[in-house]
Write a structure and sequence with these properties.
Belongs to the peptidase C1 family. By secondary structure, this protein is of the alpha+beta class. It has two domains: about 110 residues, no CATH class; about 240 residues, Cathepsin B, Chain A, CATH 3.90.70.10. It is built from ten helices and nine strands. Strands 1, 2, 3, 4, 5, 6, 7, 8 and 9 form a nine-stranded mixed sheet that branches. Strand 6 and strand 7 form a beta hairpin. It is globular and about 65 Å long.
Length: about 375
């Protein structure tokens, strides 16, 4: 007679039923070799059926590709059960990417995607790690102090070519996009005022811009609150306060600060013309975007009507231009140089504030 394991209700462990974590053959075997005297519940039989179907759906032809991906991104899992779960997520993302690129080859999309380091994360996990910008519900911005130059602005701008932009960084699994965005804006500000390009420290803000500044380190933050911290304390260079990718005690030393800000301003909300004039006149600007649809962006001009104004990711606007008649914003991300176009993304411009890029733009005043 078979021996059964009593399985609790799916409601007790919803993640098991959502992510295949229970579906390893070893787990299924244990269902029938432990807790003699119990019969399998209805929920247990459903779990067995669910797991059997999940296992059958894994594509064995992708075994080598999965191993190559794990090697490239140095993935090591706690056990085979976790690996099975991650493999299922990865295959689902790979199918999504391949379908998108097939449609792009038929002219249905203006950009391509590729598998990257985010491939084994669920949507919720990716959001928790990479899209952690926060905008308070009661947020009230000060009126924009920016005045457009009477002579107009160039048809294209790329501050990388003029030395305002440091190398692309990788925030890792720390939700510190807000700090990288402000550090990048301050790097441009420092170059504009001193002629020196210095890598500034996002970790300085991750560790020290909490408390009265209301930022939450690796759990998210606010760009304007980070600017308030910089106004009060300045910023140390990366060389003196290196990035750790985790929350730590504040070790700020005023003797090492190299960047200062007297005040900050916002660009007029949802006004792409004003944003274009501001970035052309001031230099790189800290902006927020809806980052949920760009996780696997590879190249081209990103445009998607589903990318709305739910701003949740801090990035750095470093220019704008036009490619084959399509206007775009040039944006520096903090997901490493292998992501996107060498760490950058071009987002459609003059398309109804695509991804909310003109919703939350701020900079240090000269």
């Amino acid at each position: 007679m078979p021996i059964f394991l009593f399985i609790p209700s799916p409601a007790s462990f919803p993640s098991l039923f959502q992510s295949f974590v229970c579906c390893h053959p070893v787990f299924l075997h244990l269902l029938f070799i432990t807790n003699q005297g119990h019969s399998l519940t209805v929920e247990g039989w459903l779990l067995v059926l669910f797991c059997t179907v999940a296992l059958a759906k894994l594509d064995s032809s992708l075994d080598r590709h999965w191993d190559l991906w794990k090697t490239k991104y140095q993935r090591k899992y706690q056990n085979e059960v976790e690996e099975l779960n991650r493999r299922a997520v990865w295959e689902k993302k790979l199918l999504y990417i391949n379908r998108h690129n097939l449609e792009a080859s038929m002219g249905l999309h203006s950009y391509t995607m590729e598998m990257n380091h985010i491939g084994d994360l669920t949507k919720e996990e990716a959001q928790q790690r990479y899209t952690t910008l926060r905008i308070p519900k009661d947020f009230k911005r000060k009126p924009s102090a920016f005045k457009a130059p009477s002579a107009g602005v160039p048809s294209s701008v790329d501050w990388r070519k003029d030395g305002y932009v440091t190398s692309v960084k990788n925030q890792g699994s720390c939700g510190s996009c807000w700090a990288f965005s402000v550090a990048g804006a301050m790097e441009g500000h420092l170059y504009r005022t001193t002629g020196k390009l210095v890598d500034l420290s996002p970790q300085n803000m991750v560790d020290c811009a909490g408390g009265k500044y209301q930022n939450m380190g690796c759990n998210g933050g606010y760009m304007h609150k980070a600017f308030e911290y910089v106004i009060d304390h300045g910023l140390e260079p990366e060389a003196k306060y290196p990035y750790e990718g985790r929350d730590d005690n504040c070790r700020y030393n005023a003797e090492y600060r190299v960047a200062n800000c007297s005040s900050y301003s916002f660009v007029e909300e949802r006004n792409e013309k004003a944003l274009m004039e501001a970035v052309a006149t001031i230099g790189p600007i800290a902006v927020g975007i809806d980052g949920d649809l760009i996780f696997f962006y590879s190249s081209g001009i990103f445009s998607d009507p589903a990318c709305i104004e739910r701003v949740d990711h801090g990035v750095l606007l470093v220019g704008y231009g036009t490619d084959n008649g399509v206007d775009y914003w040039l944006v520096k991300n903090s997901w490493g140089p292998e992501w996107g176009e060498n760490g950058f993304i071009r987002i459609a411009r003059n398309r109804g504030d695509m991804c909310g890029i003109a919703t939350y733009a701020t900079y240090c005043n000269i």
